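Supplementary Note 3. Input sequence used for the single-chain structure prediction.
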Amino acid sequence: MVDVLLMHALVRALPHKAALLVVGDVDQLPSVGPGQVLADMIASGAIQVVHLTEVFRQAAESRIIVNAHRINQGIIPDLRKPDAESDFYFVEAEDPETAVSRIIELVKTRIPRRFGLDPVRDTRVLCPMNRGGVGARSLNTELQAALNPAGERKVERFGWIFAPGDKVMQIENDYDKEVYNGDIGYVEDVDLEGGELTASFDGRSVSYGFGELDTLVPAYAATIHKSQGSEYPTVVIPVVTQHYTMLQRNLLYTGVTRGKRLVVLVGQKKAVAIAVRSVSGRRRWSKLREWLQSATATR
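The predicted structure, written as discrete structure tokens, is reproduced below.
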């Protein structure tokens, strides 16, 4: 997930005698920022590369890992109901409305009751896109109403409602507050008289004036792109044909590999098949591979 600008800054800061070991997964989504650094380095042939491909016995007991490898190889994951307790499930929903109701039921009731996981702190719904009835924006509103209905101490700003107990995400770097894009926090208090909201990020309280709340959004659901580099105890992923334009193998693979203890796909088998078989994606134009090749040729 390192883009060209960040990698450029890193390499420039390294001493000449230093060695750089890059570890990553080239099959996930490329960086949000420009470039495809890891893919270009591998494709250049200028750098020694080691691929880890074997699934060992302990990992093979996890259906998350097995199905992630199947997706990566272009094979439909095993969507059958497991015989025993598992860490990977598929819940069928033939239309978007059914998918929404089943996602809410899973997050609020079924997952906490069966696995003892907190619906707010331990579960993240990851969507292929923001828009649509099963998109991150709509699901954030639905999940917020189901998991933390706002009382009188609430503030509505920039299209969102914030109340004590809400899970929120910072969407811009704020070096003064020391909170950064993608950080997850929880609303502690809303001071209506003082016009201030307080949220906790990793145990540290951060204050926001109501006019600054454009840098916060509810974080019950997010896009898979926004989840890059993160892991969550439980991941619920809607996979419906409504998201046809975004259904790609690397997107589904990235989403599935965000889950540590439990992954649940909700939607249509047809949509899962579309995602697994679609590898076209949007091509990125970069000169890094050619530059690395030419630098090696002139040594």
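The mean pLDDT is 92. DSSP finds nine helices and twelve strands in the chain.
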